[in-house]
Amino acid sequence: MNAYTTFAQVYDLFMDNVPYEEWSKYIISVLKEYGIHSGVICDLGCGTGKMTRLLAKAGYDMIGVDLSEDMLAIASGQNEEGILYLCQDMCELELYGTAKAMVSVCDSINYLLEEDEIIWTLQSVNRYLEPGGIFIFDFNTVYKYETVLGDTTICENREEGSFIWENYYDKEKQINEYDLTLFIREEKQEQLYRKFEETHYQRGYSLEQMQTFVEEAGMEFLAAYDAETKQAPTAESERIYIIAGEKGK
Questions:
Q1: What ranges make up the beta strands (E) of the chain?
Q2: Strand order from edge to edge, sheet including 40-44
Q3: Which domains does the chain have, with CATH numbers?
Q4: What is the pTM of this model?
Q5: pLDDT digit string (tens) for 48-72?
Q6: In Å, how far from its chain's centre is CA 147?
Q7: pLDDT score of 1 more than 80
Q8: Residue 235: what are its φ and ψ, rounded to 5°?
Q9: Does the record bear Methyltransferase in its keywords (predicted)?
């Protein structure tokens, strides 16, 4: 089953512990550090648009890009900021113009399972960035998948719905699989819960791999930080932010 179809309906419910506001402040601080105080910003893998809306409220002209029509339908339904949402594969990005910066958070890049897909994405980003523009993105590390998540099961039960998350990690292929079993309450029959299943795949990457991808795509590797800090990543970093600069125009 395609990722983020049924799960899109309850994504914000079960992801309410994700510190989007904290993340947005961090991203804004990085944008301003590189002199980007306004202008067009493109959010790749925008999902239901939480980060996109926060950046729009901070004064940026936002474009949200996601492959899931279901996630974008939810984002569009909350679109008071006039954000342009596009249903596209980030590997085949096509914008109507350039952007001062692009961002991608919440491990969207890890859904790219092939190295070529990451390079294609970075090349597309570079193509649509204005001269001097930057791409800020995060990714989950091999360490996180192998050591923190591993073969674990996570469950959560709420009045509106429940989920079972069964996680499996293939060390040889660096592929993380998680099987979601969802029980979602019917709106018209509150005592009735319907069962849905989805399977998601992500791949873990190392900092060294990401730096190589950035450079092979023709971009400039500017910085790498341990998540939400300005500290250098360590062997135990679970999530890393990369800042890549436009190059070649």
A1: 40-44, 61-66, 84-87, 99-104, 129-140, 153-157, 161-170, 175-185, 193-203, 220-226, 239-245
A2: 84-87, 61-66, 40-44, 99-104, 129-140, 239-245, 220-226
A3: 7-140+206-245 (3.40.50.150), 143-203 (2.20.25.110)
A4: 0.91
A5: 899 999 999 999 999 999 998 888 9
A6: 21
A7: no
A8: -65, -20
A9: yes
Whether the CB-CB separation of 168 and 136 falls below 8 Å is answered with: no
Q: Are strands 220-226 and 239-245 parallel, antiparallel or unpaired?
A: antiparallel
Cβ within 8 Å of residue 248, ≥6 positions away: 126, 218
Q: What are phi and psi of 142, to 5 degrees?
A: -55, -40
Residue type, 230: K
CB 62 within 8 A of CB 83: yes
Alpha helices in 129-184 (DSSP H): 142-143
Looking up tokens 């791999």 gives 209
Between the alpha carbon of residue 141 and those of residues 92, 114, 155, the distances in Å are 24, 15, 23
What is the token pair recorded at 132?
């001097």
